[in-house]
């Protein structure tokens, strides 16, 4: 509060007191808001991965839809560069269709218990037809192990 008195020498004492009290009240409001437990949408809060900047082709979208239809899942963590590389292969539109499970407790919609139950040991890990596949998988490999028979002219390739 002494700082405020130094910064407001031209205000009369009554005005300085008003500004000091107003500043203190605003600070308490911010502190109180940060102290309450999360609300009902808290599960949606959390860290998110970097945005996917690639676009999807017809083949990427068809593969993603196939993977979703057979119950395949990609397990990962919001901070994992390999997980992001896998997402970039699909492109933004297609990856939105891939069932994704966030394994890091600080990530958005985290489901750490599921990851532990499944036995995820590294990121990314794919679960396809009851089998786990660790690491970044090419779209061709995902097509092969999932029994996908659609178009395979994938436009996004690993670098």
Task: Explain what this protein looks like in three dimensions.
With 159 residues, this protein is of the alpha+beta class. The chain has 2 domains: 2-35; 58-146, 3-Layer(aba) Sandwich (Glutaredoxin). 44% of the residues lie in helices and 9% in strands. It has 7 helices and 4 strands, in the order αααβααβαββα. A 4-stranded mixed β-sheet has the order 2-1-3-4, with helices on one face. β3 and β4 (131-134) form a beta hairpin. α3 (58-69) runs parallel beside α7 (139-146). The longest helix is centred in the first third of the chain and has 23 residues, at 13-35. The radius of gyration is 25 Å and the shape is elongated. Residues 25-43 have low confidence and may be disordered.
Could you say what the CATH topology of the largest domain is called?
Answer: Glutaredoxin
Radius of gyration: 25 Å
CATH class of the largest domain: Alpha Beta
Helix content: 40-55%
Number of helical regions: 7
* CATH hierarchy: architecture of the largest domain: 3-Layer(aba) Sandwich
CATH superfamily of the largest domain: Glutaredoxin
């Amino acid at each position: 509060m002494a700082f405020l008195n130094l910064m407001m020498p031209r205000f009369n004492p009554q005005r300085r007191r008003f500004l000091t009290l107003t500043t203190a009240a605003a600070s308490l409001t911010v502190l109180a808001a940060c102290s309450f437990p999360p609300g009902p949408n808290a599960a949606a809060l959390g860290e998110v991965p970097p945005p996917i900047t690639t676009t999807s082709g017809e083949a990427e979208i068809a593969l993603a839809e196939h993977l979703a239809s057979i119950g395949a899942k990609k397990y990962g963590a919001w901070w994992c560069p390999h997980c992001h590389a896998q997402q970039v292969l699909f492109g933004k539109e297609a990856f939105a269709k891939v069932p994704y499970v966030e394994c890091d407790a600080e990530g958005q919609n985290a489901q750490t218990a599921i990851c532990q139950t499944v036995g995820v040991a590294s990121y990314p890990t794919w679960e396809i037809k009851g089998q786990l596949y660790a690491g970044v998988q090419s779209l061709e490999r995902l097509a092969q192990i999932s029994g996908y028979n659609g178009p395979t002219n994938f436009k996004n390739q690993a670098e």
